[in-house]
Amino acid sequence: MKYISNTLAALVISISFDIYAQEIVDETIDTQVSASSISQNAQIKIDGLDEQSKELYYEYKDTIAEYKSLKIYDDQLQEIINAQNDEIKSILNQIDSLDSTNKDILPFLKRMIDALREFVLLDVPFLKEQRLNKINELDSILLKANVTTAEKFRKVFEAYQSEYNFGNTIETYSGTMEIDNDQMAVRFFRLGRIGYYYASLDYKKTGYWDDFSKEWVHSRGKFSNELEAAIDIANRQAPPNFINLPIKPIDRTEL
User: Exposure of 216 by Cβ count < 10 A (0-12 exposed, 13-18 middle, 19+ buried)?
Assistant: First the structure.
């Protein structure tokens, strides 16, 4: 009986011990599972922080690159500003120097304008009124305070250039002139400065300017065919060709 009691006691102790041990094992497993879960959460947070740090790093690199670009651009702008400031100083110095030379330039330009006017008055009288009006405009420009000296010089130079070009071109235009005491519509033809002609609209009356006598010579249609061909060339209605017109006064006994 005593043996059975001891056996039961031992069995109870063993069962209690097993139960306690199982509880310890369960707690250990729960602890490990909990620790594993915490570790996973921590790893997730670490991964998140790593991504954020990478993003911050790349943003930092982009910011540095943008700063360098802006710095280069700013340096270039500063160089341009410095160059502009130097140019402004140079222009101001030139203006100051021009003030001292204007006293000589303006009278010189006036003499050039007067010489050009005299030339037009003595020249073959093509577009005479138009050419004289341009010269008179130069006189007005010369007196304007809001026009720079350089612009005044340019205008005078252009007028001289225009007159020079007349000697190297041909031209035709319409107008009127008095023929046999009647005003008639005519076509004028200019051959450089060496020939100046007219023809009535039906080409039955033609003539040329005699630069020696300073008057028109009426040829009664003598050069109508040649003059019509020349006018067609000037109007680009015919290809360039030899122009057969007199360039010196004709013996009037031939007319």
Answer: middle
